[in-house]
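Pilot study result, target chain (123 residues):
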Amino acid sequence: MKKVTGIGGVFFKTKDPKATREWYAKNLGVDAGEYGASFEWKHADGSRDGLTQWNPFKDTTAYFGPGKQDHMINYIVEDLDQLVQELTTNGVTIVDAVQDSDYGKFVHILDLEGNQVELWEPK
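Predicted structure:
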């Protein structure tokens, strides 16, 4: 079974997300709105389009989990429900239940060092 098929998002904490978005727009051309910037790409075999989301979060966010990590990576996966079963069998900590949204399915897990990681199966 395929697991990670791409990077779905890069999220990081900052003291001032608005100023950070403005700095990246001015200096690096990253056109980010309130929810960040979307980078579109094609899979290497050209079979389908992909999307990676970039977004600075307020440094007080709890979205990255209970630890002190200053970033979180979102990985694109296939068959999230099956993957969660396999991860559970492997003893991986599943932080929350699989959530189904307009953008697809999401779940959070902890890696070996306790960093929260987001898994995403796009619709």
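One observation from the pilot: The radius of gyration is 15 Å. A full batch analysis is planned for the follow-on phase.
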